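hiii so my PI (J.) wants the whole complex modelled not just the main chain, which honestly fair. so below is everything: two entries, each one labled with what it is. i double checked the lines twice but i was tired so who knows lol
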Amino acid sequence: MIKIPYLTALTTLFSYGLLFVFGQLRDFFRKIIDWWSHNKLQGYAPICLGLEDFYIRRLYLRIQDCFNRPISSPPDAWFDVVERISNDYNKTLKRTTKVSRCLNLGSYNYLGFASADEYCTPRVIESLKRFSPSTCSTRVDGGTTVLHAELEECVANFVGKPAALVFGMGYVTNSAILPVITGKGGLIISDSLNHNSIVNGARGSRATVRVFQHNTPHHLEKVLREQIAEGQPRTHRPWKKIFVVVEGIYSMEGELCKLPEIVAICKKYKAFVYLDEAHSIGAVGQTGRGVCELLGVDTADVDIMMGTFTKSFGSCGGYIAGSKELIKYLKYTCPAHLYATSISPPSAQQIISSIKVILGEDGSKRGAQKLARIRDNGNFFRAELQKMGFEVLGDNDSPVMPIMLYNPSKIPAFSRECLKRNVAVVTVAFPATPLLLARARICVSAAHSREDLIKALEVISTVGDLVGIKYFPAEPEKQESRIKFE
Amino acid sequence: MAKLYVQAVPTTDLNRNTEWFTYPGVWTIYILILFFSWLVVLSVFGCSPGMAWTIVHLSHFVVTYQFFHWKKGTPFAEDQGVYNRLTWWEQIENGKQLTRNRKFLTVVPVVLYLIASHTTDYQHPMLFFNTLAVFILVVAKFPHMHKVRIFGINADQ
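here's the output for the full assembly
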């Protein structure tokens, strides 16, 4: 639950109102000036209808230098950020040749596989030489190599399901699977803070979509009862299928899903559970098997488990794991399997090798060490930030920790001041988050050492004082007794 | 003064254009902005308090009519244009009528009207303009006027 100081809520609303008013005034004068100037459209319709791009033009472009920063090295714990300059107040940005070496607090590099790894990289290079960078084909035509078969078996074993199906892109996995598993007479109940890929897939499936309050099982039960009692819209026939879609770790909140209660409710009302483990697979759990292991839920109770390989495995792509019949059905109906190019062989080899490292099958203890380190790093960082007085969201054991900023002017201030001190953070604002609740999202990784984290804490504390985001009282430092040697 | 904290409960409203209205502090800031704009008008024009309230009431009418009942759609493109035919008033809380927020927004112009007409001693021509403004605003907010376009004004092509 997010606690805002009341005065901050008022000033944030006022700031957004002021930005909105200034944007409207500038648009008004632009319209007058354009009325006098020559019309360049030559009879074609304009690309943007009405005020669709108001937010981009008048709010986002003002702070454009805080987003889309190009990097010129692998996203390890420290990386090179390319500097950009603007000559027209951030409307266009030009890259310079200068780079600055910054501490990386934004990449989803949970287990540290983003840079060269002693076990994975030689095998990836060998598979690149053996198989070439792309399969140049869809899975059904000529794009299934032995690596793909091995990868699917590996993923199914790792996740704890009978079979798995792998796709080349994580976003596409959600938006191409949801239209296939439900259709017009189905019901999808999704969490209010679900990712855009799930929203897109649910919209594309033409099933009825209902939303329940974020992570609130009793509201989910209320929505389920209401919908089952009413039936399909207008005909009131019973629903063909009901899916409840939740995520393992919500990336904007850092919260874990209340999976045991939700699975219990779904069993009671005979709804299917679709779990999106994009951020939690490989990062949480005793052996890295995700939220099911962490929260003690049997994987047989979750009907469809989806995940991506971009976060903890250092590769690209997504997977769906479920029963053998489900995967067989998906193999001949899912458009991402039939028409999209299969995952590239070196990426597949990277996933296989990283899973082997995590499970310890490469003969060393590095997997268990990485998992322990990310857990320790995450808990240490969160505890220290909370002690300093920041408002940090997220549960314990989650590697994602958003720091609340609220005010729209603090977003670029925090981002630019941190970059000046060589710490790269990702700031998120409206419309990815609710209007009042802008935040800076920190992702720790197993590649960060204790010194890196301490440096990050110092920088964030200094910048936090400068920008004024320590909304809670800081815990007083324990007075250490000093023994004076006379 | 000790810091008062409020809970920000996440809503189920998927429309990012309107879900900010359910967060804490919105009603207070609305009333505070109206009060401070009255003070600003008094200081800038140096007119009587009644005239200042009339000016605040009429500019409130223009601004809220333009943004609540005239402009359609959302200021960003992520929702793929599903709300392009709906004004902001028709979008809030998914079109559910007679909620607390809607009742509050209906009461505010009426209260402003009462203050403006009382402080100008119900004189013409201010009374006429104030009455016209509040009449248009309140009728536009009736539940029966949901998605109604009179004489095709502001309808889509």
